[in-house]
Amino acid sequence: MDITQITQIIALTMGVAWASGINLYAAVFMLGLMASTGHIELPPGLEILADPLVLFAAGVMYLIEFFADKIPGVDNGWDTLHTFIRIPAGAILAAGAVGEVSPAATLAAGLVGGAVTATVHVAKAGGRVLVNTSPEPVSNWLVSLGEDLTVIAGLWTALHYPLAFLLALALFLALVAWALPRIWRGLGQLAHRIKGLFRPRPPAAAEPPATQPPRPLAPPPRKLK
After folding, report:
1. CB neighbours of residue 9 within 10 Å
2. What is the 3-state secondary structure (H, E, C) of the chain?
3. Per-residue pLDDT tens over the stretch 57-115
4. What mean pLDDT is reported for the chain?
5. What angle do CA 215, 217, 221 make, to 5 degrees?
6. Are 156 and 16 spatial neighbours (Cβ–Cβ below 8 Å)?
7. Which contacts qualify for 107-115: CB closer than 8 Å, 24 or more apart?
8. Fewer CB within 10 Å, N side or C side of the chain?
């Protein structure tokens, strides 16, 4: 196995893990569709993605996520639920992308892939909570559409220009590492503001009664002579 093949395997492994953290169903559907139409050849561990049943399920789930991801609040609940789906699925896809190399390489790919998927998922979910604080829905729609297009473009780059994808992925992860502390601070401030809305306000202090100034004493009556 030469360096080009190794680079392609690593790019596909990290590509499916990265894409799964953003939109799992779009990643599965795109890979399966390209494989079934003969545009790419998937490793043995991922050939099942081209099965018509898998393609149908991934397509239906992608349509559901496409609309759920555009509704503020619903997208946050969707991301929370998919914490238990995207991360293990990303690890499994990353392990399958290695192919039949060795059990150790498969396990290593699953561990690293799961970590990449978890990092990307946390960044996406936290960022979307902050985006939803905007009163208008346009920013939510634009971010969601941008995520879908990024998954498609990123996987296409990983398949055709693996070295360029790996360099872009390194920059992306560096940006996430820089942004995550700021996202957490923003989420903490948002939670503090929400908590303050439900905190009972202390009763207003009673004002002391107004006191009237003392009346001046009347002069004593004069005695008649």
Report:
1. 19
2. CCHHHHHHHHHHHHHHHHHHHHHHHHHHHHHHHHHHCCCCCCCHHHHHHHCHHHHHHHHHHHHHHHHHCCCCCHHHHHHHHCHHHHHHHHHHHHHHHCCCCCHHHHHHHHHHHHHHHHHHHHHHHHHHHHHCCCCCCHHHHHHHHHHHHHHHHHHHHHHHCHHHHHHHHHHHHHHHHHHHHHHHHHHHHHHHHHHHHHCCCCCCCCCCCCCCCCCCCCCCCCCCC
3. 999 999 999 999 988 889 889 999 999 999 999 999 999 999 777 889 899 999 999 99
4. 86
5. 145
6. no
7. 109/13, 112/13, 112/14, 112/17, 113/13, 113/14, 113/16, 113/17, 114/17, 114/87, 114/88, 114/90
8. C
Tokens of 190: 């948002």
Q: How many C-alpha atoms does 161 have within 13 Å on its Cβ side? A: 9
d(CA 80, CA 142) in angstroms, rounded, equals: 20
How many whole angstroms separate alpha carbon 72 and alpha carbon 10? 35
Question: Do 55 and 33 contact (CB within 8 A), yes or no?
Answer: yes
At 145, which amino acid appears? L
Cα distances (Å, whole numbers) of residue 145 to 117, 125, 207: 19, 15, 57
Tokens 């009673």, located at residue: 206
What count of Cα atoms within 13 Å lies in the side-chain half-sphere of residue 206?
3
Note the pLDDT of residue 136.
Answer: 72
